[in-house]
Amino acid sequence: MEQAIGKAAVLVEALPYIERYYGRIVVVTNYGQKTPGYSLSVIDVGEAKVLRTIVLEGYQRPHGLQFLDARRLVVTAEAQASVLVVDVVAGRVEQAIV
Questions:
Q1: Coil, strand or helix: which one is 68?
Q2: Ranges of residues in the chain whose predicted pLDDT is under 70
Q3: pTM surpassing 0.90?
Q4: Beta strand 2-5 with 72-77: parallel, antiparallel or unpaired?
Q5: For every residue of 6-45, which 3-state class applies, written as one string?
Q6: Euclidean distance between CA atoms 54 and 46, whole angstroms
Q7: Res 45: pLDDT
Q8: φ, ψ for residue 78 (rounded to 5)?
Q9: Which long-range contacts (CB under 8 A, 24 or more apart) does 69-75 make?
Q10: Distance of alpha carbon 20 from its chain centroid, rounded?
Q11: Measured between alpha carbons, how far is 5 from 96 in angstroms, rounded to an integer?
Q12: What residues have CB less than 8 Å from 71, skipping those under 6 apart?
């Protein structure tokens, strides 16, 4: 899927759903369509490129998200009715709140 960010477009996985900005960084939830999505795309808007894709091991349908600070955000995993704390820089789930 292509996600438009301002005047640029970048390729992300699954069906992009929600996006949040922190400075030059945008994080997009890859929610999915018939097949549930299970990842986040971290995008540098200045470079108009995907920096990394964070796989949410064991969690599907990422939906709402909010940055806590420049490094961490929380995201819901609708399929598991969970909230995840994700380290965007390290590219990993720090904690799952079920």
A1: coil
A2: 1-18
A3: no
A4: unpaired
A5: CCEEEECCCCEEEEEEECCEEEEEEEECCCEEEEEEEEEC
A6: 20
A7: 87
A8: -60, -40
A9: 70/22, 70/23, 73/20, 73/22, 73/27, 75/29, 75/40
A10: 9
A11: 29
A12: 87, 88, 89
pLDDT in tens, 52-63: 999 999 999 999
SS3 content of the chain, % helix, strand, coil (to 5): 5, 65, 35
Phi, psi of 79 (to 5 degrees): -65, -30
Q: How far, in whole angstroms, is CA 54 from its chain's centroid?
A: 7
What count of other Cβ atoms lies within 10 Å of the Cβ of residue 74? 16
DSSP annotation of 7 reads T
Closest-CA residue to 80 (of 60, 55, 66): 60
SS3 80: helix
Distance set, CA 88 to CA 7, 70, 98 (Å)? 24, 8, 20
Residue type, 14: A
Buried residues in 45-57 as b, exposed as e (16+ CB within 10 A): eeeeebbeebebe
